[in-house]
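Tokens help. Consider this.
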Amino acid sequence: MNLKSYTPSINQLKDKNYKYRFSVFTPVYNAEKTIKCVHDSLVGQSFKDFEWIIVNDGSNDDSHNTILNIKENSPLTINYVNNKKNKHKMACFFQAIELANGDFFLTFDADDECVPNALEVFNNEYESISNIDKSKIVAVTGLCKDQHGNLIGDKFPSNPYISNPFHISAIDSIQGEKWGFTKTNILKSISYNDCFINNGFMLEGIIWNLIAKEGYKTKYINTVLRIYHIDTAGSISSSSEDKTALGAIIYYISNFNWFLKSYAFKSPIYFLKQLYFLTSKSKYLDFNLKNYTTSIDSYFIKFLFVLLWPIRKYLR
């Protein structure tokens, strides 16, 4: 099996007139205790031109009834989908993209908050981009703090900083939670095999790096907009290493195939680490060596991977 079949791609963009400025998407899994806080945070926004898309991913607590009660009494425009069975976050992500009727798509988790002017800041930052640059800058991303007021992760090298998700990770080594929107028409143009969303825990980073691979840029700002609650149980994206292994492996292979030629000499250590992690994660799956070597484009990475294959079980 060629693991490239799990990799999404981008088709030709189709213009569309959207009804709202933002589509705010909240994936829910057992969030009956926190979803009201998310709602209140959105009600308090100074910028009102948005819809709220909620996808309840087979919760086994009282999330469904809690959301129904919120929807019945809320001033917000709410589009609610209740998945009877758990599909995992990536499937919910694409469900919401299909439903989205806003220019910008913003994921907002079910246990977080945001500052009252978050959407206003996002909108103003995008509007300040020149018309020429808007064709390539398709996202705006800001910073996060925890519920105690502490900044999470690194700031960007400048304010604003025009780059892409792969570059800030591989070259700038920027770590930690960030939060931002992406143009909806870019996300709607993504094509994928059903195996990409039907096999559990695929990483969102695959999507952001795919957009970067196509040459699109992000405007990064050193403004705190999201309040990220740490040590919160019941996250929709939390799971064990063996369950996340496939998503991680597709992420690493995609990075090699998409970026190695352009970035190998700029950040060789980054790719060596990716190779180590790829080999380590492979022990959790039943794929054979050929499945990997036929999926990796670089002969040099193939060669190193074959060398490491016999000791993969001993790698952490």
User: Anything to note?
Assistant: The two ends are 25 Å apart (CA to CA). The chain has twelve helices and twelve strands.
